[in-house]
Write a structure and sequence with these properties.
Helices cover about 15% and strands about 25% of the residues. The protein has about 120 residues and is α+β, with helices and mostly antiparallel strands.
Length: about 120
Amino acid sequence: MVKPKKPVVDYNIVLYHVTPTDNTNSIVLEGLNPRFSQGKQHLVWVVSKWRITWAIAHCAARHRKHIEELSVVVVDINTNLVRRTHFEGVFVSPHILQIEGHSEAVNFLDPETDDEQETV
């Protein structure tokens, strides 16, 4: 017996990408481009809101940057353009992703502004 395919769920979600602040201007102009990925696969990595703190720590270690030298980029993306990884709350995309805004990473670590980060 053949199992019926699951229906394709098509909706937008807000995800976040952490990057060294030096990259922010080009990201604003060109979007998040997977060709600049430094991993084995050329993919854009994005995370759910609850994973931002982990992503900031990961990016700081990977790029040898202080948290003050990092930015968080906000992406409003269709679920068809990303796929889940084996890490819960972490997604990848082979597509160029346009951003909605960005903010300094330290703003996402301040408990006073946990629910409402100001983005540019």
